[in-house]
Amino acid sequence: MPPAPIRVWGLPLAPLTRPQAAEEVARLIADGRPSYFITANAHYAMVSDADPAMRPINESAAFILADGAPLVWASRWRRTPLPERVAGSDLIYDLCAQAAERGHRVSFLGGPPGVAEQASRTLARLYPGLTVAGVCCPPFRPLADDERAALVSEIRDARPDLLFVAFGQPKGERWIREHLEELGVPVCVQVGASLEFVAGRVRRAPRWVQRIGLEWAWRIGTDPARLAPRYARNAAFLLRKALADFRRGRAPEPDPGPESESSTTPTDPRPSPEPVS
């Protein structure tokens, strides 16, 4: 099992490095029961803080990674800091390399038209032997019941071990949690813009910008009309949380308590395996 989570701004973040996160995914695939993990950045933390309905989604995840420098920085106010940022846009390469090596089947779902197909071709070229079980790009609108059922059936019939979902946050996490048991996929994860990065539709910040934690500033420059208002809201949230951390000092973050349907220890949402006769 992953180490005990570190709570930062209400999120139970797993203190894992990139290699450890990839190994944890392999463990979940070997276990075989439906599960999901989350890559959380500052925007996701803000959405979760504002919406109580996100809490059971977060608490039921197999683990949550800190995909955002502010979350790692904030963890340094805790007694046990996170080891590093684990970006989903980096981890997707690690997971596909691991899948090619270990024979895991991967599927891609969502993103703008053509993005998932291009990303799957790029990853298959980078990692010979990678088995792409399926690529689905549903229309960008609410699906009718029959369309939703057909989509879930298509994914389930493809039998992926790992499903990359690009529906945006938190829509992707909500969709995965709602359909987890129907899908029957050992590991699902919402990957945000990662497919667009892999497909070459959006250029990532240079490594030196990523290392100093300013990838968000680079992204604003790539699409200021859409991203500037979002990051302005994120900045206000970060300031409020940073002031709260400063006032609290190095005391542990208050536990949210057991009053909701989840406890502070993540509850395994996966069904027990069928008994062997």
From TrEMBL:
<dbReference type="InterPro" id="IPR004629">
    <property type="entry name" value="WecG_TagA_CpsF"/>
</dbReference>
<keyword id="KW-0328">Glycosyltransferase</keyword>
<keyword id="KW-0614">Plasmid</keyword>
<feature type="region of interest" description="Disordered">
    <location>
        <begin position="248"/>
        <end position="277"/>
    </location>
</feature>
<dbReference type="GO" id="GO:0047244">
    <property type="term" value="F:N-acetylglucosaminyldiphosphoundecaprenol N-acetyl-beta-D-mannosaminyltransferase activity"/>
</dbReference>
<feature type="compositionally biased region" description="Pro residues">
    <location>
        <begin position="268"/>
        <end position="277"/>
    </location>
</feature>
<dbReference type="Pfam" id="PF03808">
    <property type="entry name" value="Glyco_tran_WecG"/>
</dbReference>
<keyword id="KW-0808">Transferase</keyword>
<protein>
    <submittedName>
        <fullName>N-acetylmannosaminyltransferase</fullName>
        <ecNumber>2.4.1.187</ecNumber>
    </submittedName>
</protein>
